[in-house]
Design goal:
single chain, seven-stranded mixed beta sheet, mainly beta, about 210 residues, SH3 type barrels, Photosynthetic Reaction Center, Chain H, domain 2
Length: about 210
Amino acid sequence: MTTPATSFQIGAEVVCSDGVCGDLIRVVFDPVKRQVTHLSVEPKGRAGLAKLVPVTLAGEDAAGLQLSCTRAEFDRLPEAEETQFLPGDEQSGYPAGQVLMWPYYGLGMGGVGGVVAAPITYDKVPLGETTVRKGEQVQATDGAIGSVRGLVIDPADHKVTHVLLDEGHLWGHKRVSIPISKVVSAQDGIHVSLSKADIQALPEVSLADLTG
């Protein structure tokens, strides 16, 4: 009997063993092995505080995306994002963009002193891996064709089998799946070895078609 595939729809609600813990905002995968390694899950109402969840904790059942940990254990997982501060000028002697520092408060000044800084948030991704976000552009051989909705994986080895794509415009879009063998790059969007016409000819799919 074939084990049903698992779909990681970006934006889906994620549930721990003792209740809802957040929403799936990104999927982290190894582009060489074509294997999902982590999920970035953001707690409800706590933007910028996402956790990096090993994919080995994740599964799918009739209730949706499930984690085999409690909410307390989820809270102890490493952060998926890091916020630093980027100086807004070159007073430090370095070009803007090359130095990161926290703002500080001058003694007795009642306000921020020194360099004015802007918060910059980075994804914390294991070396050599990359992330897939909802809405990321999919590029056919002859131009943009749609946006990423999620990934489908084989739960036995966590290898990606398909990319879920919302193809077309708001007034005539459909969801299709592209075999991972057709993905040639995941840098600056998903690039595939299919033309727009090839993708437009693919049949519309539902999650039931892929996950059985």
